[in-house]
Specification:
alpha+beta, Cytochrome Bc1 Complex, Chain D, domain 2, Immunoglobulin-like, 5-stranded mixed β-sheet, 11 helices, flat, binds copper (II) ion
Length: about 325
């Protein structure tokens, strides 16, 4: 039965679905906190968080996880004590919102977080049966259930088609097939015709008389540098004069030459109503050109849309059109 092989492969593909059984708090914790914290495995950059929910009250914890920088700035005595103990390394503001902070605290206080192996879902651990934890167990059970369902369906179909019914009116069958094809074609073409004109491509705003103003943009972890002279590499940063304030005269057609001096970033322009109006990738060793005509006097924001590191959420800039 060689057909069973792709089915097993499909089962493996579906396996990561089991990860979804991880609680939202655990997921946030693993994404944002494990670089510096363990639960029950000792101090890393920050303290071991085992039992932390009994060391602080919930309100303090929520605020701390959301804005540790502000807590420290407010000279909170508990925070200053911790800062001193951890060699003045301050925990960064991770942009965690209140709901997320509460989920993380719930996770930190739950039994799930108490054990040692349970928090660690590195691949080596999840395949060793010795330290199997609840997340791995959920993934395994989900995988097995999905696999069993697929195998059963396959076997049922294999059984039902073993003896094909010999008397099929092929003409009638082809007719049905044609009708299905026609119906599907009408639906697809109809949907396409009805929606194509609404595809959000900008109409070209450029007229031959437009003056093009070139602005160079160099993205760097975690900010954007604008300049009137080209920036190609981090070497140029030493000589190129960056603009402190970017003001564009109303009605100008700007051609942004966008590159990056380190990792991949994105350069996205938002208008004053926070609607994205244009974007392009900022890639090292490559320059993307983006033409935008600014007919509206307003403050525009620039955001990075490509996760580029721990400070990505802070990567924003602005310019003014007037
Ligand atoms: Cu980024």
């Amino acid at each position: 039965m060689p057909k069973i092989i792709p089915i097993i492969a499909l089962g493996f593909l579906l396996n990561p679905l089991g990860i979804m059984a991880v609680s939202p708090g655990q997921q946030s914790f693993q994404q944002k906190c494990t670089a510096c914290h363990t639960i029950g495995k000792g101090d890393r950059v920050g303290p071991d968080l085992k039992g932390v929910t009994s060391r602080h009250d919930a309100q303090w914890l929520v605020r701390w996880i959301m804005e540790p920088d502000k807590v420290i700035a407010d000279k909170d005595p508990v925070a200053l004590e911790l800062l001193k103990k951890y060699n003045q390394v301050a925990m960064p503001n991770m942009g965690v919102n209140e709901a997320e902070a509460k989920n993380i605290i719930e996770y930190l206080g739950s039994g799930d977080a108490g054990g040692e192996e349970k928090v660690d879902i590195s691949w080596s651990k999840s395949f060793s049966f010795g330290g199997i934890g609840s997340a791995q167990l959920t993934a395994l059970v989900t995988f097995l259930v999905i696999s069993i369902v697929i195998v059963i369906v396959f076997l049922l179909i294999a059984r039902s088609t073993r003896n094909p019914v010999p008397t099929i009116d092929m003409k009638a069958a082809y007719k049905v097939r044609f009708k299905f094809f026609l119906a599907a074609a009408i639906v697809v073409v109809g949907t396409l015709a009805a929606t194509l004109s609404r595809t959000p491509y900008p109409k070209s705003v450029i007229t031959p008389s437009d003056q093009v103003k070139v602005l160079y943009v160099a993205a760097e972890q975690f900010f954007f540098r604008f300049s009137e002279t080209p920036i190609q590499s981090s070497e140029d940063l030493k000589t190129v004069k960056a603009l402190n304030e970017v003001v564009i005269p109303k009605g100008t057609l700007v051609e942004f030459h966008v590159t990056s001096v380190d990792v991949n970033h994105d350069f996205a322009i938002y208008d004053s109503a926070h609607r994205i109006i244009a974007q392009t990738q900022a890639m090292p060793h490559y320059t993307n050109r983006l033409q935008v005509k600014f007919d509206e006097a307003a403050d525009y924001s620039v955001l990075c849309l490509e996760y580029c590191g721990l400070g990505h959420h802070k990567m924003r800039s602005k310019f003014t059109v007037r």
